Known about the structure:
The chain has nine helices and five strands, in the order ββαββααααβαααα. By secondary structure, it is α/β, with parallel strands linked by helices. The radius of gyration is 17 Å and the shape is globular.
Amino acid sequence: xxxxxxxxxxxxxxxxxxxxxxxxxxxxxxxxxxxxxxxxxxxxxxxxxxxxxxxxxxxxxxxxxxxxxxxxxxxxxxxxxxxxxxxxxxxxxxxxxxxxxxxxxxxxxxxxxxxxxxxxxxxxxxxxxxxxxxxxxxxxxxxxxxxxxxxxxxxxxxxxxxxxxxxxxxxxxxxxxxxxxxxxxxxxxxxxxxxxxxx
Length: 199
């Protein structure tokens, strides 16, 4: 099902291309963007997309899906999804929770919409990207986005962390770096491109 909205600021005439776990909440709240139907976003608006380290993003995805009691965002059968999530959440050992999480990705694919790749969210028609010129999208380094966005918009906004969630041992996720590398190969290439650009 196609997404129907992106975050848009009328005062900045800027469109933030949505991707889960890439600072959408922070940018919306601190820069004053609002969810806006695609057909109401001007064609001449400046479009930008934040690019995040895929390994850090996976830790954030795990916290969002497993450690926070949020509304589900399943991409598979809801009953199967609920059973998978409940089983992982009921496991007390954090290391086992993480292994079950990756086992579930192996078995069901990207079973939650928070797991969508960044390159998919930036280019796929499901996200209505067939209506914009992706080549003209400003790519923002997640690690330096406050400075980059303030430079683009001539503003002086301080970004705050929203949806931080519970703390957990990220080294448990880092044990799966090779798995994440294969899962998000194009995202890692994009992230490396962004880092090379600013050196």
